[in-house]
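re: ur question from earlier - yeah i can do the single chain one, its not a big deal. heres the input i used so u can compare w yours
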Amino acid sequence: MRVMSSTEPWVGTWRPHKPRGPIAALYGSPGPKYALPGLTGVSQHDPTKYKAPMFSFGARHDRKLESSPGPSYLIPSNITKVGRDGTPAFSLHSRPKEPQLFQAPGPGKYSPERSVKAIFHSAPAYSLSGRGKDINTIQTPGPASYSLPPVLGDKTVATSAAPTFSFCGRSKNGSFHEDLKKTPGPAAYKVVDPCIYNKKPPQFSMTGRNFPPSETTKKPGPGAHCPEQVTFTRAKAPSFSFGLRHSEFIAPLIIDVPE
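and the output i got, formated as tokens:
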């Protein structure tokens, strides 16, 4: 191992010095960094070495023992060693349904006018019926599921395509109306009021409407007068009215009460 002296020149901001301990760069072999495959076991065995035959213990299979059922079965009490005891037993059942009488169809149940097709030859007839429920299980794709290659444009497959051109949008960079100097437009300037540097003309404004003073009392209109009821300018016919009926048993009005 080379011993570094303190008189060696600096290499930038670093100067060679004596190492504090051994480092991996001082050894030529990789050392314990690499692990060789083992020679025992089944997994990760060295393929360059001979492997002895290996055996393993198999799993124990479940085996049911043949034995008597024991008390797990409940034997009926009427079973003996010679069979059933022969005692009559009865149970309750539901009442059977009464048989229905055969009802022959009447004359109105027959349709002899429909027997023409069974006797004479008739042309085939078809009718529109509802869609069955079994059609939902059919997963066959329809005609709209297939897409044929286009025959127009530049992306044709089966036919030859003529040269096509398209209009593109106007680019803001490099066009004739691009403003490279970024000069402001006419709308960027504020218009100076001419009244500042010229003689100011007279100006007028619209004021609110002024109402003349008037009385605030409400006066009757023409419809409030009844000239047909005026009797001061002409003779009035006599008019009568029904008076009140006074009771004979009414008490007189007493004003002066003696004390």
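The mean pLDDT is 76. not sure if urs matches, ping me
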